[in-house]
């Protein structure tokens, strides 16, 4: 499918202005994931090729002023929850100032961030003071050597320092993300789950998805969540807690544990029916569904002197035409963007 580029105000708007934006399937879309940069200080093998991606040249990236304006307009269309991601969001210059501006935008109720935490420790408190509510941190192995291999160079000690600093700064409840890949880190699932016995964290196991640049990792690497659930239950016992609204994770708990377990089963048990989210790429494209190619060029409208009203109309139209869901595992795979451009 070709990406959609709608640079002009659509002639027929299907949604009521002033009402919070809903798509054509009745889903309320109120969660924007912003990729602050497509660059990263890791090269996780399930996310990016070793040589990286074709990174966007700097002039193509949204400036802070453009981003803040867009967030204000998105908030007017009903977006309430913002997640900063990347690439690696901590590489963005003036991250603290950006967090503060977004957190102070009328209508925005929560700003959170997904990070690899390598650079988090020294800035965690400043981010919390600026209005960041919580962080989700990626950790795919507890073994420093395997961690280094999976991330192609990552230092697990610094990531633990980031986790500790996030807790101290109150960026909680803390969620830890592990992309499980068969034959690489699936043997560590019990050890990762065990962390939740003494810590109030949500440890989440994610089915690997076939994004551009790494599609072959998912071809043979997906471990269906039900296999992991059975394995963990056999070792510790497991209580099902629920599946709350638009949360992509099904949650469980080891009996008596302080923390929880989450399973994000995009492939074996998709959650598109309750999807509430869209993505803004660092180069200013509104990407309508993580696993589809459709996107709309907001940067062109921003830089082409589009008024706030025109931008709002474009955003409402994009929400209206948001695809129902993905077609995996056997349907059309994404062909345009890598995970590091979309932010997960
Ligand atoms: N298929 C699909 N997977 C998603 C979507 N959103 C998140 N994920 C997956 O879930 C992983 C974890 O997402 P996070 O960045 O931690 O964000 P989150 O789960 O929305 O965060 P919370 O606000 O804490 O619920 C991502 O890396 C993706 O693999 C989505 O809309 N579709
Ligand atoms: C793209 S990263 C960006 C934020 C940050 N660099 C990090 O790793 O947390 C966001 C999330 O996407 C997940 N992710 C990356 N590639 C994936 C894939 N192929 N399938 C499923 N999740 C993936 C990562 O594990 C991470 O939790
Ligand atoms: S998953 Fe995050 S840390 Fe790993 S390469 Fe992708 S963007 Fe970087
Ligand atoms: S695959 Fe698309 S529709 Fe499904 S949950 Fe993710 S973003 Fe939403």
Automatic annotation (TrEMBL):
Task: Name the positions where [4Fe-4S] cluster 2 binds.
Answer: 272, 275, 289
**Signal peptide interval:** none
Q: Which residues bind GTP?
A: 33, 83, 114, 175, 277-279
The pathway it acts in is: Cofactor biosynthesis; molybdopterin biosynthesis
Listed A to Z, the keywords are: 4Fe-4S, GTP-binding, Iron, Iron-sulfur, Lyase, Metal-binding, Molybdenum cofactor biosynthesis, Nucleotide-binding, S-adenosyl-L-methionine
> In its keyword annotation, does this UniProt entry include Transport?
no
Record-listed E.C. numbers: 4.1.99.22
Stored PROSITE patterns: MOAA_NIFB_PQQE (PS01305), RADICAL_SAM (PS51918)
List of residues binding S-adenosyl-L-methionine:
46, 87, 138, 209
Residue positions annotated to bind [4Fe-4S] cluster 1 are 40, 44, 47
Specify whether Lyase is a keyword of the entry.
yes
Q: Which GO BP terms apply?
A: Mo-molybdopterin cofactor biosynthetic process
Task: Tell me where on the tree of life, at the top rank, the source sits.
Answer: Bacteria
UniProt domain Radical SAM core: residue ranges: 24-239
- GO MF annotations in UniProt: 4 iron, 4 sulfur cluster binding; cyclic pyranopterin monophosphate synthase activity; GTP 3',8'-cyclase activity; GTP binding; metal ion binding; S-adenosyl-L-methionine binding
Task: Tell me the protein family, please.
Answer: Belongs to the radical SAM superfamily. MoaA family.
This protein's assembly is summarised as:
Monomer and homodimer.
Biological role:
Catalyzes the cyclization of GTP to (8S)-3',8-cyclo-7,8-dihydroguanosine 5'-triphosphate.
The record's PANTHER family line, in alphabetical order, gives: MOLYBDENUM COFACTOR BIOSYNTHESIS PROTEIN 1, MOLYBDOPTERIN COFACTOR SYNTHESIS PROTEIN A
User: What's the protein name?
Assistant: GTP 3',8-cyclase
Q: What is the lineage of its organism?
A: Bacteria, Bacillati, Chloroflexota, Chloroflexia, Herpetosiphonales
